[in-house]
Amino acid sequence: MKNDLKTAVVLLNLGGPDSLDAVEPFLFNLFNDPEIINFPFSFLFRKKLAKIISVKRAPKIQQQYEKIGGKSPILDITSKQAALLENSLQKKINAKVFIAMRYWKPFTEETVIEVNKFSPDIIVLLPLYPQFSTATTGSSVKEWNRLIKSQNILTNVPVKVIENYHLNDLYIDSFIERIYTALKKISC
């Protein structure tokens, strides 16, 4: 029997530039995050420092993205994961999977609005970073919480955050299986 509770699963990820022109603003968003550049009084010049870093690093990073098709593959990969996860969850629960990128599109702000339209009974935040770090999971979860508070939406919906799964046996086994598969291909 399928659970009728409406569950929103939000895949939290870093994001990546979707074009070569997006590299500099992506880098700016990354380095302007207080969870990335955070030391005493950094708030006084974080924005300027982020601008300097993004302008200086963008040309080199653009060359790297040019080699892999002119954009980050992260949204395409995350979209495939979201579709597969939603398909699997739908067999047992009433679930919809959303994507929230921290530093590029779809931004967390857009996703909060989409999740609100879905009107879930419960929200599961699933960072696609396997272990907790303030610069990854911490930043993504803080941004989610800041946005729901500032928009005054979804504040009464229970939220479950999956912070760590790097020591989960099934997760480790999946890596071992892929390593063995790759080794077999190499040794042929």
Explain what this protein looks like in three dimensions:
It is a single chain. The model has no long low-confidence stretch (mean pLDDT 94). Strands 2-1-3-4 form a 4-stranded parallel sheet. Helix 5 (134-151) links the parallel strand 3 and strand 4. The protein is α/β, with parallel strands linked by helices and 188 residues long. It has helices at 23-31, 46-67, 74-90, 108-118, 134-151, 169-187; strands at 3-13, 93-101, 122-127, 159-161. The protein is globular, with a radius of gyration of 19 Å. It is built from 6 helices and 4 strands, in the order βαααβαβαβα. Helix 1 (23-31) packs across helix 2 (46-67). Helix content is 51%, strand content 15%. The longest helix is centred in the N-terminal third of the chain and has 22 residues, at 46-67. It has 2 domains: 20-67, no CATH class; 73-163, Rossmann fold (3-Layer(aba) Sandwich), CATH 3.40.50.1400.
The unreliable regions are none
What is the CATH architecture annotation of the largest domain?
3-Layer(aba) Sandwich
CATH class of the largest domain: Alpha Beta
Query: Residue-averaged pLDDT, rounded?
Result: 94
Strand content: 15-25%
**Share in helix:** 40-55%
- For this entry, what is the oligomeric state of its chains? single chain
- Roughly how many Å apart are the termini? 46 Å
* Major sheet size, sense and barrel closure: 4 strands, parallel
Rg: 19 Å
CATH-defined fold name of the largest domain: Rossmann fold
The structure class reads alpha/beta
Number of domains: 2
Order of helices and strands: EHHHEHEHEH
> What overall geometry do the principal axes of the alpha carbons give?
globular
Q: Biggest sheet: strands side by side, in what order?
A: 2-1-3-4
Number of strands: 4
The count of helical stretches stands at 6
